[in-house]
């Protein structure tokens, strides 16, 4: 993605002059001005001011601007020159060019500007710094060559220094995080870019900006969260991220947001912050044994927050609901601590309520229930008391073969743990369901159903008779 900053200093000009006439007139002026500037016949700064007006007013003219011989050289000369206003206007031109969707505006053609844009990140002007940041960010998505060039030119330490200098200016913090995201989101970033970022000292700055500012809005927190998400997903060195507090900070924020969501307080765009936080936590949980991560997972309210997200966003953002249960699955897998907490906090009934919903939600819920049942008889009894047996009778009737498979797996854990649970399943008319499943088109499902009938349920019926 790319972003275009609006120049708030420019006044809108009135009038009803024909747009095409204005375009052709200004285009001719820019052409003449660039040619004259190359010949040193006019003020370079005046030329750049006219150019930025042309580019911002008529984006369709970007290719024609680039075709002017010496146009980029004029911009670079002014960007690197001693006059602040000329530098600003040149930076605006490069920003307009970097945002262009036209194929002729190749980011590689703008590479002459990158050393100066990087250098200016250490400046004191927040507005100018923000302009340079978004220009660099816009150049990254479409060009691997540009990303490699920026890495060699020292963009990573420059960005880290920039966020340190402007740490109290949230607009700049947001721009830095966005630029980092553009750099580390590429498939090739795990080679050199992400290790450089992890070693740069950036992580504490991203973590400190995760908490939303009520006056400024969610923007900086969202961008920092997405940047962390790309780093976590790369799996380059998640141990470093955990050691620097990423897991602890992300889970703490999810607990806070979960409490607000459960009370009905959902800010517009909040899902854009929750989503990367969930992915950070889910991926960091896979970075090592859960026991080793326990010191970073001190708040069991995270479980309640995850279920709250799933319930609240179930209809508006079902994929986010599924993501929440995915994190819950990663927490409860091979963890008696979190499985016990699910029962102690009485969260299982809320989880069971999600079983009727498709789009991968019910299969993920069944995975979590299976994780809990895996710990033995007492856990299985609590699950049955929460109403799981009747819920399984419903999921076994579903057309989704994956849902039926997981339902049979969970049912097998329950009835194998206690004959009373098997008896209760029979009382709820479970036998006819399994007998019908024996005619399922998938062999693995038929085998599972037959195994349950022959080893756990039919013998019990014979004893009762």
Automatic annotation (TrEMBL):
It comes from Esox lucius (Northern pike). InterPro entries: ARM-like (IPR011989), ARM-type_fold (IPR016024), Armadillo (IPR000225). It comes from the Eukaryota. The chain crosses the membrane at residues 20-48. This is Transmembrane and coiled-coil domains 6. The keyword Transmembrane helix applies. Keywords: Membrane, Transmembrane, Transmembrane helix. The lineage of its organism: Eukaryota, Metazoa, Chordata, Craniata, Vertebrata. SUPFAM superfamilies: ARM repeat.
């Amino acid at each position: 993605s790319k972003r275009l900053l609006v120049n708030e200093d420019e006044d809108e000009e009135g009038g009803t002059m024909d747009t095409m006439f204005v375009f052709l007139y200004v285009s001719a002026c820019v052409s003449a001005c660039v040619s004259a500037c190359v010949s040193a016949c006019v003020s370079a700064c005046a030329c750049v001011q006219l150019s930025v007006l042309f580019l911002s007013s008529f984006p369709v003219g970007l290719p024609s601007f680039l075709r002017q011989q010496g146009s980029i050289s004029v911009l670079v000369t002014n960007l690197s020159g001693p006059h602040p206003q000329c530098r600003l206007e040149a930076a605006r031109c490069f920003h307009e060019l970097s945002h262009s969707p036209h194929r002729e505006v190749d980011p590689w053609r703008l590479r002459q500007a990158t050393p100066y844009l990087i250098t200016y990140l250490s400046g004191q002007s927040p507005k100018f710094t923000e302009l340079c940041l978004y220009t660099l960010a816009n150049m990254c998505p479409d060009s691997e060559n540009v990303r490699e060039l920026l890495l060699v030119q020292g963009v990573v330490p420059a960005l880290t220094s920039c966020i340190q200098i402007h740490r109290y200016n949230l607009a700049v913090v947001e721009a830095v995080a966005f630029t980092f995201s553009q750099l580390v989101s590429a498939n090739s970033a795990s080679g050199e870019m992400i290790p450089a970022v992890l070693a740069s000292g950036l992580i504490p700055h991203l973590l400190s900006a995760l908490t939303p500012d009520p006056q400024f809005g969610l923007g900086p927190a969202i961008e920092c969260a997405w940047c962390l998400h790309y780093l976590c997903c790369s799996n380059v060195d998640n141990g470093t991220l955990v050691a620097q507090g990423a897991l602890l900070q992300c889970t703490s924020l999810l607990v806070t947001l979960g409490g607000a969501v459960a009370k009905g307080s959902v800010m517009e765009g909040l899902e854009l912050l929750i989503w990367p936080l969930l992915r950070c936590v889910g991926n960091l949980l896979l970075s090592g044994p859960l026991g080793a991560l326990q010191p970073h997972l001190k708040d069991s309210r995270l479980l309640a927050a995850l279920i709250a997200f799933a319930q609240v966003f179930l209809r508006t953002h079902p994929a986010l609901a599924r993501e929440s249960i995915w994190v819950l699955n990663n927490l409860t897998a091979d963890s008696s601590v979190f499985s016990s907490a699910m029962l102690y906090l009485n969260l299982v009934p809320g989880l069971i309520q999600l079983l009727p919903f498709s789009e991968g939600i019910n299969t993920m819920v069944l995975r979590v229930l299976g994780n809990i049942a895996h710990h033995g008889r007492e856990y299985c009894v609590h699950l049955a008391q929460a109403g799981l047996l009747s819920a399984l009778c419903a999921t076994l009737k579903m057309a989704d073969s994956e849902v039926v498979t997981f339902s049979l797996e969970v049912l097998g854990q329950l009835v194998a743990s206690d004959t009373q649970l098997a008896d209760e399943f029979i009382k709820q008319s479970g036998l006819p369901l399994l007998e019908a499943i024996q005619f399922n088109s998938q062999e693995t499902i038929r085998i599972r159903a037959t195994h349950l009938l022959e080893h756990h349920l039919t013998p019990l019926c014979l004893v009762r008779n």
